[in-house]
Each structure stands twice: as structure tokens, then as C-alpha cells.
Amino acid sequence: MAYDKERFRKMFPHIAKELESGESKVGIRSMRSDINAGERAASGYFEGYAPDIIDFLRRCDTNEQAVEIIDFMERRNEISAEYAEKLRKQLKERGVRSFGSKKETDYYLKRGGYDQV
């Protein structure tokens, strides 16, 4: 499909910039005209994976952000009060990076192999 690059750049400057920069690429592994067949065939490294509190804590930049996450998960009864206290103690004594290295933007896309075009 042919298109005029300058016209596209004027109509969609942000998309053009993103395309030209090469950042934020999402790979397309296959294409199907039947959506149900496509959904059945699609699979990823993290299929069925549900992030836990440690995954959320690894996205935090500061101890304060981590406390907010712990408090939120405790309020929602997604973690027990005992586990929340254990996490707070570790956070206070060793800091947010004690839960692991920081998970960068698009962590799951990159680790799942969807960052290649």
C-alpha cells in the first residue's frame, strides 16, 4: 500500500515520530482473518501469569510508592496483614530494591518476545 510520507507526517506527527524512532515496537507473529482461530493460535511467555505483589513492588521507584502498594493490597485483602508487615519490615530495613531489580516499561512485552518486528 503506497502513501505519501510527508502527508502522513503532517496528518499524524506523533505516530510518524514513533515509527521513525524505532521505539515501542510490537512484533506481529501471525495474521489471520478469523479472529477465533487467531486467538486460539496466539500464545505468549506470560500467558496465564498473574503478577503478584512483588512484581508490583519491583515497578516502584521509591520506598513511599512501595508502602502505598502494600497498603492497597492489604486493604483489598489480596495479602494478609502478617505478610504486609513482613514486606514493610523488609522495605524499611533493606529498601525497595531488596525485592528485585526495577521492572522497566514494557517489561512483559519485552520478556514475552513481543518487542521484535
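(the above was protein one; protein two follows)
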Amino acid sequence: MLLVALCAIIGTAVGAIEAAPRQQQDSNLRSEEIIANQATGRVYILVVKDAIVVGTLGIPTEPGSLSPEIVEIGSKRTAVLLGAVAWRAIDSGRQIASLARELPSLRPQSAAGETPHLQQETTEGVAADIEIVGIDVFERLRTIAAQLHAPIHLPDAQPVLKIVLADYVEDYGPEVWTLDYKLRQEELRADYLQTQIERPRYQQLWPPDKGQSHSTLEISYPGVQSNPSLLESMRNDPRLQRIAGAGPGIADVQQAILAGDTRKVLPADAIAFMRAAVSALAGNGSDCYAIAAIGEHTGFTWIVRPKGPAEEKTERPSGAPTLGRP
């Protein structure tokens, strides 16, 4: 697991610290090292006839990195979590947050398809039901950030958490969004920083703008990785060039992706392609991938389940990097 060592001062409010005498502060403060499990890799999404197919592939960026986590959060909506997905205190073993487990309860219980989507746009152009998910996660992250007071080092453009949302909306159709949560810190005094989470940045990836490709979507975390994209691999990687014969219709899916329009691809063919492609990229015997589908009429279905909850792994790899060090 990629573990992030962070120093959290817990049990005392900032105002009380500033007001208390120094000796009282030293006796009352208790420090705990907090670790965050990070999910890194790629998310592949095919929007096809009457379905959305989502595949994830874990690509380690550091020793012990976790795979992206697919979460069902409604009958016709799924989320993929990337970045800091689970937090716990090292010494006490106290679990601070498990976003994959908490996410379904951080939103209204109504399914995505029950929300009159086009009639509920916000002034910023973000669909109201998407914004509800975004703000609920934002509020949860704020409670975590309040416990982090040591320096945290992240590249300027890298969010601490990225969520990919895919769903079917009644009278609207398929849509895919990304929600990015960035972190900022302010030094209140020497060796004590206030950590804050910025409101999410929303980006709609599907439907694409007029004139853009209607082909596969690919999202990476962190940032652009050195591994070739799915499209590049289809053109140059023998592993993907060989999968055309792995099942009926796979060659048709490959041609549709290369042509830039997957909207007429049949769901069964898209699922067969995603299974063959992600499995080939992961390698034989690897369990670092998962696949799910959302049918317009059938809802969420697991195709390849992940092996198990990533956050339950607790051993810290030797030399694991931290956000607290560059």
C-alpha cells in the first residue's frame, strides 16, 4: 500500500492551543501519525449502445500502490476513486475514513435516474445531482483535513482525491464527470499548518462537445503516466493486437474505438473487449483490475470484482514514500 505519513494534532482546537500557556500545550497535545492509502492507475470507460462499461487498472507509482476503486452508489451510477481513498492513525490503528465504504451513504438515497437532470442545472453549469455528491464528499474531506498539521507535498496540479462519476440519467442519457479535490495549507506558526480542502472542480467528459470523438475515455492518476494510453496500445502493443480473436465482436469494438465512435457498439461486445484488454494489460495472474457495467435498463452490474477491500491491508512497505516529504 502507498502510505502517506502525516502528523495530526488531535483532541485540541487551534484557538485553544493559541490561548493556552506553552507548558499546558506541551502536556495536553497528543500527536499521531496518519497514513493514507493511495489508489493509482487508470480508468477506462466505453459508452456504447444502451450501456456504460467501466474498467480500472492499477499502475503502481510507488511500492505498494493500490488499484482504483469502483463503488456502486446507485442503481444506475458508479464512482471510481483515485488518490487518497482511506485514512488511519498508525499508533492507535484508529480508522479515520474509508471513502469507498462511506461514499454510498454520503448522498441522497434516490437513484440518479430519478433526478430531473436537465431541469436542475446550477448557475455554474454543474448538474444538481452531481453537485450534491461533490459537496458531500467535500464536507467529509474537510473533517479529515482538519486533523492534518504537518507539511504535505503534492504537485500543484495534482488533487489529493479524484472521483470519476458515470451514470445514466432519465430523459438525458449517459454522462461521465470528474471531480477533483485539491489541498492547500497555511502556516499558523512554526511546524504547525492549517490544512484545507478546496471545493471540487467539476469537468464533464461525456457527452463530448460537438466535433469531439465519441470514443473511449481514459483517466489517469496521478496525472499523465508514462505507460501508453489504451489507444496507443491498440495500435502498437502486440498484447492488444492479439485480443481480436478472444471473442466475438471484439474486433468490431477495436475498429469503433479507432474510428472515434463507440455509440453503436453492443454492450456484450464492449464487455468482452474490456475484459480482454484490461486483463492483457494487467498481465497473467494479476488481480489489479476490475470491470463493471451500467445498463440503461438493467442498472449496475459487476463484470470482474476486485479481489478485496484495499484499505484492509495495513503493513507498511519498507521505504514507502510520504506526502510529508518531497
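Reviewer note on protein two: The CA atoms of residues 72 and 140 lie 18 Å apart.
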